[in-house]
Write a structure and sequence with these properties.
78 residues; three-stranded antiparallel sheet; 3 strands; alpha+beta; Arc Repressor Mutant, subunit A; single chain
């Protein structure tokens, strides 16, 4: 049996962003979706998107260098 993955604390908008990026990313987790498109898909304002992105960056599950996003793996609990 595999150990459970620990999910870093983040708000609903942050995890919504993570799930969208997982869904649209390529095999390496890369996505070039524009912030405007992501905001529209998630129905959130630009400020909310920036806050969601910041939460994921600080949790270490996302890399971002405009306009490129990369979803990083979730840590496996020991």
């Amino acid at each position: 049996m595999r150990p459970a993955k620990r999910l870093p604390r983040a708000g609903a908008a942050a995890w919504g962003l993570y799930l969208v990026l997982v869904s649209v990313g390529d095999a390496q987790g890369l996505s070039y979706y524009a912030d405007r498109t992501l905001g529209r898909l998630l129905s959130i304002a630009p400020e909310e998107l920036a806050a969601a992105r910041a939460q994921l960056l600080s949790a270490g599950v996302l890399a971002y260098e405009p306009p490129l996003y990369q979803v990083l793996g979730l840590e496996v609990a020991p």
